[in-house]
Write the structure tokens for this entry.
Amino acid sequence: MKDIIFSNIKKSFGGFEVLKGVSFECIKGEKVGLIGRNGTGKTTIFRIITGSEDIDEGHLHVLKGSAIGYIEQIPEYPDGTKVIEVLRRSCQHIYDLRDELHTLEQDISASKSNCTQEKLIKKYEKLQFRFEHLEGYDIDVKLEKVCSGLKIGDEMLDRDYNSLSGGEKTRVMLGQIFLNHPDILLLDEPTNHLDIESVEWLEEFISQYKGTVLIAAHDRYFLDATINKIVELEAGKTKTYKGNYSQYAQQKDDEITRQFVTYKNQQKKIKAMEEAVKRFRDWGTRTDNPDMFKKAVNMERRLERIERVDKPTEARKIGLDFNAQRSGNDVIKMENISKSYENHNILNNIDLHVYYQDRICILGKNGTGKTTLFKILMNEVNPDSGIVKMGSRLNIGYLEQEVHFDNENEKVIDVFRNQFPMHEDKARNYLARFLFFGNDVFKSLGDLSGGEKVRFQLAVLMQLNPNLLLLDEPTNHLDIDSMEMLEEALLDYTGTIVFISHDRYFINKIAHKVIELKDHTLHEYLGNYDFYRQKTKQKQEKLHTKTRTSIDTEQHDFQKRRKAANQEKRRLRRLHEIENEVENIEQMIEKVEAQIEKHGCDYEKLQELYAHKKTLHDKLDTLLHEWAELDFS
């Protein structure tokens, strides 16, 4: 059975055609991903499904009687409305039914007339059957599970809904929809305001959800875990692919390759036919042979009948290319940093050492202090205690999670040229690399979308040539194409990167080290996100096993872990020492080689220098061998 059918649907706004013949379908129970660049019409499709937007042409079918869950905009509630009341509104009929059953129970107990009691019991049985059908006995358990998964704690449940942030309100509205359990679930960027733990809970929720789900998202890891079909929206039209995001990406690559081969073969054939036409006409002229002209005309007709294959073109992508001058080896050193807000402890005696060319992801639940850590590094917030030492020759580029501008009434082109004086044509060509085309450069900063603000800030950062990038949720407002371009640029970047992200796909690509901010302190993992998950899972399994072991075994495990941790510390310290020694020896070898050139005719001196050079090379080989053993141990 098909819950949703789009058939050649067209939709325009102010003369601009957004949807140019969209066709796709969602079969009952399918989990479908809707992907496309920002502004291509994904939200318009959702609004058409819910009926809040009309169509210009085409046909829409939504299965009659289907309940649809969708957050079109954050609703308002009267002041004083508690979060728990907002959540219960989605299933208020169940709570009302429970109250009615409770009242009937009291009436039955209080009734002294058998006739009245019998009537009340019949009414009670009828309502109880309906209550069971609505799974009313499980409603509190469902509420608890949803609140736990979306990090809506007891303190938040008791808060005034209107006091919540935009992200918190979004989580509450998601919870309201999930409790209502609609037949069709429409999710527009559902992971934007969730930490990784909540995203993983949402993945599990969707995988067990029995209804139809249509998700518009840029989180590739999330799409891989949840969906079994992709609907790609590009240039106002849709194309459907089976599988999750990774399978779609492979199919798309194969499709472009096949299309390019077909295009090349057809172009080769067309060129050969055009040359044949020229030859026939040339022979006809030289020999005065009408048959040759007929052949030329027939060949031209065949050329006209050929259905031309379009040359495959890639979508416009941002052009990133960060240049970085070398900084010192020690980039950041934080020692015993603590920070509290209104007696609420955020950071507690943390230590962080960042080295040249490190690529570190800071992970943690929302509110654990990740952004506070960045603001301390940028001198925007002072720690309560501890020392921050920034390395030499540093040029810092900072991308905030929510990009704000002081001069929001000024135009993009003017702000850029005021900061980086250059001819307007050159500035426009540069900004075009970040997808600011035509009149886009004359938009006011305040009118830019979230994605446009991030792209403009990246354009500014690239001009500054930073050698230390501090990126706070850099992928939040970017579409998938822009994310991939950012990833490519960062992989080629020769500086140091410290970033905060809940985009697991992005973390896997960029991070060499994951640092988790948990319980007010830092926990280091020498790998990407998958490595971090593997290690934390092992820790959880060990912790679970530990509860079933004896005290002696616990002490033995503790000593073993402490020994391993000390060995790891010694290994890392020795690796760092070797790197410094190698750098020193290489400098000494360069000096010896300079001396050899200087004493080219002094045989005795040369013997002495060559012997010294050999000693240095032997020592260097020994160090490199030790480094290799330690690095891969």
In short: The radius of gyration is 33 Å. The mean pLDDT is 87.
